[in-house]
Amino acid sequence: MPEATQNTEQEGGFEPPEGGQNTEQEGGFLAGAALKMTERGKFMSQEYGFDTKKVRAGYEPKDHKYAVSPPIYQTAAYDFRDVENAAALFGLREAGFLYTRVGNPTVAVLEERVKALDGASGAIALSSGMAAVSYTLLNLAEGGGRILTSPYLYGGSADSFKKIYPKFGISFDWARNLFDPDKLAEEIKPDTKAIYIESVSNPNTFLLDIDAIAEAAHKHGIPLVVDNTVATPYLYNPIAHGADIVIYSATKGLNGHGNLIAGLVLEAGRFNWKTEKFAHFDEKYYTLRDAEGNLRSFLDVFPENPFTARLRFNFLNYFGAALGPFDAYLAIIGLETLSERLAKQVGNAESLAEYLKNHERVEWVRYPKLAEGRQGELFRRDFPRGAGGVLAFGFKGTREEREKFLNSVRLFHYHVNIGDSKSLIVNSPQTTHGELEPREKEAADIPENLIRISAGLEDSADLIADLEQAFRAAGLGLY
Ligand SMILES: Cc1ncc(COP(=O)(O)O)c(C=O)c1O
Predict the structure, then answer these.
(1) Which H/E stretch holds residue 265?
(2) What ligand 1 atom has the least distance to the C-alpha of 230?
C-alpha cells in the first residue's frame, strides 16, 4: 500500500478508546482525542506549575525503557504487531504510530509539552513556523473567505497574505481599528473566517488588547488566531486571554538556541465550529466512519480538538510539512530552560532599552516596558514577567552611518532570527520586512531607520559596550 494512502483504506471505523488504553504507546496521531487520563493527563489538568510542566509534561520514562531524556525515534515507519493491529490502527480503533509524516513519538512529546504549557486541548508540531501559519489559514478558510488581520506582523506572514493566499481564494483585510475593538468589529464581513494577530508584534513589539479582540471575534462567530512567537508561553498565554488558535515559530524563543526550524499550532478547544461558516469541519469522511460504516466528521470524532486533528489528517498528512524527530528532540531540550532564558533575555532587553533611550544617536525606542499610554497599560496588565527579548530603535543618522554602525558590531550577531541565546541585531526594514512596499511599511510603522535587537543571554554590560563601540566606529559617539 502506498504510504500516501495509508488512511484511506481502513477496515471498520474508529471507536474512541477507553481512557488509559494508550499506556503502551506514548502519544500518536490520535493524541488528544483518544487519550484522556493517562499519565500525561495529569500534566494537562493544571496539577503542576509551569516550570514543572516545561521539563516533564508529555513524557513518562517508564514508557521508554526508563530513559530520562526523551529518545529520538529516528524512524520513518512503525512495524505492525500483526494483521489485527494493522487493521486496528488503520481503522483508528487503536491509538499508535504508523508513519512519521503524521505522528512520531518524539514529536508527540513536544506537542504534549507545549499543549500543557499553553493549557490547550490539541497541539500539532510542524516543520516551520510558516507551515503553522499556512496550514492554520487553509484549515480556516479553504475554499474561500477573508481573514481580518493586523498590519503589525512578521514580514513573511504579511507578504504571503498579500501575494499567495488570494490565489487560493483567501483574502486579507488589514484592520484599521486594532486598538479600538468596538470599531474593529465593524470590519468583520460576512465571509470573514478569523481574526489573525501577533501578541507581541515583530519587530515593533506592539501589544494589543487581546481579550477585547477575542470578544469582538466571538460575537461575530469567528475564532481569534494569535501568533505568540515573540512572547512564548512563559510571558503570555493567549488562550487565557480568549484566543482560539495559537501559533508558534518554535525556531525562535520556544527552542531558543537558533539551531532548528519548527512550528506549532494549538487550539483552546472552546470554539463552536458547528456553524454554516465552518461547515467543512462537519464534512463527513469515509476515513472517519464508525464500526457500522456511518461516515463521520472531525467534529464527531475529535470533539475536543477538531482543529488540530483536521490539520493533522488533511494538511500535515497530505501537504507533508512534518517535523523531524531530531529537531523535535532539540526543541524539547530547548524548552526545558524556557523560563530561565526568557527571564534573562527580558532583563537584558530592559537594560538595552534603558541605555538606548538615553542615547544621543537614538531617535526612539520601542519596548513595551518603556511605553506610555494604552501600550503601557496593556504591558502592566498583561505582561507581569516582561514582554520579551525583542526591542526596536530608530537610528539617528544618515543611511551610511547606520550601515557603518551595523557593520561595526562585534558581539551581536547580524542576522534575521530572534529568540536565540546569542544577541542578534538587524535592520528589519531592509531584511526581515524588506518585502513590504513603502506604503505597507508606513502602515506597519516600520521606518527605514528601524533597527531590531533580540537580546540573548550574554552579560548586559558587554552588549551595551558593543553597541557603544559600534556607535563610535560609525563616528557617532564623539559628542
Ligand atoms: C512572528 C513570526 N511568526 C512566524 C514566523 C515564521 O517562522 P519560521 O521561520 O519558523 O518559518 C516568524 C519568523 O521569523 C516570526 O517572526
Answers:
(1) strand 263-267
(2) 1
> What class has domain 3-335?
alpha beta
Average pLDDT for the chain: 90
- For a ligand 1 pocket test, name from 153, 154, 199, 232 the mutation site with the most ligand atoms within 8 angstroms of its C-beta: 154
Q: What is the DSSP-derived secondary structure letter of residue 37?
A: S
- The grid coordinates listed for 434 are 524588506
Cell (9 digits) for 8: 484511506
Residues forming CATH 3.90.1150.10 domain(s) in the chain: 339-473
Q: Is the minimum distance from the CB of 229 to ligand 1 under 6 angstroms?
A: yes
Per-residue model confidence as pLDDT tens digits over 361-390:
999 999 999 999 999 999 999 999 999 999
Distance separating alpha carbons of residues 402 and 427, to the nearest angstrom: 9
- Nearest one of 329, 323, 278 to 123, comparing CA atoms: 323
Ligand 1 pocket test, pick from 161, 249, 420 with the greatest ligand atom count within 8 Å of Cβ, gives 249
Q: Are the CB atoms for 86 and 9 separated by under 8 Å?
A: no
How is domain 339-473 classified at the CATH fold level? Aspartate Aminotransferase, domain 1 (3.90.1150)
Alpha helices in 155-223 (DSSP H): 155-163, 181-185, 210-219
Residue closest by Cα to atom 15 of ligand 1: 154
* Helices 399-408 and 460-473: angle between axes, nearest 10 degrees: 140
Query: Is 150 a pocket residue for ligand 1 (Cβ < 6 Å)?
Result: no
| 73-96: pLDDT as tens digits | 999 999 999 999 998 888 777 889
Distance from the alpha carbon of residue 98 to the mean position of ligand 1, in angstroms:
29
Please give the Cα distance from 14 to 11 (Å, whole number): 9
For residues 20 and 390, the model is more confident at: 390
Choice from 134, 157, 417 to test ligand 1 binding pocket (greatest atom count within 8 A of CB): 157
Residues of the chain with CATH 3.40.640.10: 3-335
At 155, give phi and psi (nearest 5°): -60, -40
- The HSE-up count of residue 162 (CA atoms within 13 Å, CB side) is 14
**If you take atom 9 of ligand 1, which residue's CA is the nearest one?**
129
